[in-house]
Amino acid sequence: MKPDLRGAPASTEDEAALLRQVSERDRHAFELLYRVYYRRLTRFLEQVTRRPQMVEEIVNDTLLVVWRKAETFNHASRVSTWIFAIAYRKALKAMKRAAEPRRVPWDGEVGSTWGPEEQLIEREARNRLRRALAGLSAEQRAVVELTYYHGYAYREIAEIVGCPIDTVKTRMFHARRKLKVLLNGKREELP
Amino acid sequence: MILRFFRFDDPVHREAVELLPWLVNGTLDGGERARVESHLAQCAACRRELEAARTLQAVIASEEGDPMVASALARLHMQLDEEEAGYGPRQLMRMLARRWRETRPAVRRTLATQFAIILMLAGTLSIVVATSEPAPALYRTLSEVPSAMPGGPFIVVVFKGEHSEQEIRRLLLRLHARVVDGPSSVGAYRLELRAGGLQDALALLRAEPAVALAEPMPAQGTRSE
Lengths: 191, 225
Prior knowledge:
Shape of chain A: globular
Oligomer: heterodimer
Structural class of chain B: alpha+beta
CATH class of the domain at 154-217 in chain B: Alpha Beta
Largest interface: A-B, 51 and 43 residues
Strand order of the largest sheet of chain B: 2-3-1-4
Shape of chain B: rod-shaped
Order of helices and strands of chain A: HHHHHHHHH
Largest sheet of chain A: none
Strand content of chain A: under 5%
Helix content of chain B: 40-55%
Strand content of chain B: 5-15%
Number of helices of chain A: 9
Structural class of chain A: mainly alpha
CATH superfamily of the largest domain in chain A: RNA polymerase sigma factor, region 2, helix turn helix motif
CATH topology of the domain at 154-217 in chain B: Alpha-Beta Plaits
Radius of gyration of chain B: 46 Å
CATH architecture of the domain at 154-217 in chain B: 2-Layer Sandwich
Order of helices and strands of chain B: HHHHHHEHEEHE
Largest sheet of chain B: 4 strands, antiparallel
Distance between the termini of chain A: 34 Å
C-alpha cells in the first residue's frame, strides 16, 4: 500500500475542483489550496534550496503563479505535479540569483555504515544524514525529497523537474551513492 | 568495508537497484514491482539496499519543519489585494513587462507583428478621418441651427392644442413667417420671419391665445438677443 507521506488533506479530485474555483478568482478556494500546499512546498523547498530564509518567498511566488495561471492548467497531470513543477523552477531561479548552491561542508567524520533503523534514528545519525543531504546537488536533493517525503512516482518526478525518466533514475542513483559515501565518511570502491 | 553497489552486467539487478526507492514509496506499477520483488528474493545485496532505502525514507519522512502558514498567507493576500485594487499605470506596466518576459520568443514575435499592423491601420484610419468631410448628423434638435441654414431670424413656437390649423395659418400670414421645421416631439415648430422685426413678432406671438411659448433662437451660429 502506498504510504501517505505527503500530508495532503485533499484528494486529487478535490484539488482539481479547488483549482477550477481558483481559476474563477475564488479567494476562499485559493486559501484552502494555499493551506494544503504551504507545508509541502516549504518542506520541499527547504530541502532543495537549503536556504530557509528564501523559502517563504518562493512558496508565495509559486502560489501567486497558481493564482494567476490556474485557468491554464489542462488537467492532463495531477494538480500537485503542476504546482511542484512551478515551485521547482522558481527554486532553481532563486538559487541562481543568489549565486551557486551552498554546500554545508562535510566534516569527513568516519562513522558506522548504515545499520539497523534504531541506530540511525538517533540524534547524531540524523544530524549526519542532514549534513549528508546538504552535500548533494539541488537536483539530487529534489529527486530524493520528492521520492521519500512526498511519495511521487519517478514519472511524476520527471514531469516536475522537467527531465527524462532515465535522468531521474540516474540522479537518484548518484544521490544514494553519494549519501552512502558521505555517511560512511570514505570513498567506496565503485564499479 | 567494500560494497559493490551495482552489477552492470545484470540488467535485472540494475533495474531492481534503480527502482528500489520507488518500491519503498509504493509507486511502482504492478509489473515493475513484481520483477523487483522477485529479484529481491534472490539478491542479498539488493535486500541490504532495500533496508537502507527504508531507513532513509523513515528519517527523511520524520523530519518536520515548523512552517508559519498564517503569516505567509496574510502576506500573499496583501499582495493579491494590492494587485487587484490598484492597477495603476506603473503596476500595469510592470505586469505587462513581466508577462512579456515570460512569453515565449515565437509568441513575442507574433505579438510584435500584430502590434505593428494595428499601429499601421490606426495611422491610416487617422489620415482618412482627418482628410474627409464630416458626415451629416442623423438627427438634430429644434434649438440647433445648422450653420448652413440661410435666412431668419427664427422663432421656436409651441401652439396650444385647441386651436385650428386655420387660426395658425392666419397668424403666420400676419407675421410674414413660415414653418421651416417641426413639429418636434413636444409639438414645437421653427418659424422663419420673412419680414418685420424679431421683437415685434415675439410680442405678437406671446399675446396670442393660440401660442403657449415663443422664443427667439440663434441663427447661423449666433444667438439673436
